[in-house]
Amino acid sequence: MKLWVNGALHDAGSARLSVLDHGLTVGDGVFETVKAERGEPFALTLHLERLARSAAGLGLPEPDLDEVRRACAAVLAANPTELGRMRITYTGGLSPLGSERGDEGASLIVAVGATTRRADSTAVVTVPWTRNERGALTGLKTTSYAENVVALARARERGATEALFGNTVGQLCEGTGSNVFVVLDGRILTPPVASGCLAGITRALAVRWTGAEETDLPLDVLDRADEIFLTSTLRDVQAVHRVDGRELAGAPGPVTAKAMRIFDERAAEDRDPALG
């Protein structure tokens, strides 16, 4: 495997980043995960726009998106794969031991690894911890992911692939790495960004392409929804067949199945879609 680290490709075994990089010492960084099929990234422009927004939200220097594109192209060319997970990481760079940033400039790392297509449906659990819809990092895709690691481990212990959070006022928010949609009486509903959820790229495309509505939803909507599905870069649209102890028979249901079909068709038509 070859990775891009600060301006050049390196073999995975020889790639180096300082142990004093702020992304390592205090989680001061942002990232994007991009799906690549046969070397072609999906929705790269939207991902890079969010990378820049997240960097600005953390106060990091503005990333050179042309350089990031070059890095992505180089990594994909050097690591041919049928279906890949490309990770773009942008951090505060070499810094003192503490929260204060140094003046050495940011670090850019791009890597890609092979992955497999997700199953059509999955199981999820809810967790007792909350998303803070008013936090300093709300809405930013940062490398501070320890909370997600803990929640996902809880899900794995219970035979699920995702954990769902409520927010501090008891509303449904998001998963550790996904957005959540519910179907009630044929309507597709999803929490608004104001709930504290990440403004997912796949989420935004699914809302546009399926006519889903953004609205506040109580966490207990999961107990009565006719259908539930998740969206994310590598899940695309994925049905949920179990929430905690509740089985949703026949998943994917008809509305979810249609959403899955629409997303696949639209994504195949345009590999770099726009939202504007």
In short:
The chain contains 6 helices and 15 strands. With about 280 residues, the protein is α+β, with helices and mostly antiparallel strands.
What low-confidence regions span 5 or more consecutive residues with pLDDT below 50? none
Order of helices and strands: EEHEEHHEEEHEEEEHEEEEH
Q: Shape from CA axes?
A: globular
**Number of helix segments?**
6
Characterize the biggest β-sheet: 9 strands, mixed
| Residue-averaged pLDDT | 97
* Class per helix and strand makeup: alpha+beta
State the end-to-end distance. Answer: 36 Å
Strand content: 25-35%
Helix content: 25-40%
Rg, alpha carbons? 19 Å
Total beta strand runs? 15
Describe the structure.
This protein is α+β, with helices and mostly antiparallel strands. 26% of the residues lie in helices and 31% in strands. Strands 7, 8, 9, 10, 11, 12, 13, 14 and 15 form a 9-stranded mixed β-sheet that branches. A 6-stranded antiparallel β-sheet has the order 2-1-6-5-3-4. Helix 5 (201-210) crosses helix 6 (254-269). The protein is globular. The chain starts with a strand and ends in a 7-residue tail after the last helix.
What descriptors fit this protein?
single chain; 276 residues; alpha+beta; nine-stranded mixed sheet; six-stranded antiparallel sheet; 15 strands
List the helices and strands and how they pair.
Layout: E1 2-5, E2 8-11, H1 22-25, E3 29-37, E4 40-41, H2 44-58, H3 65-78, E5 83-91, E6 107-114, E7 121-131, H4 146-157, E8 162-167, E9 172-175, E10 179-184, E11 187-190, H5 201-210, E12 213-214, E13 227-232, E14 236-243, E15 246-247, H6 254-269
Parallel strand pairs: 7-8, 7-14, 11-12
Antiparallel strand pairs: 1-2, 1-6, 3-4, 3-5, 5-6, 8-9, 10-11, 10-13, 13-14, 14-15
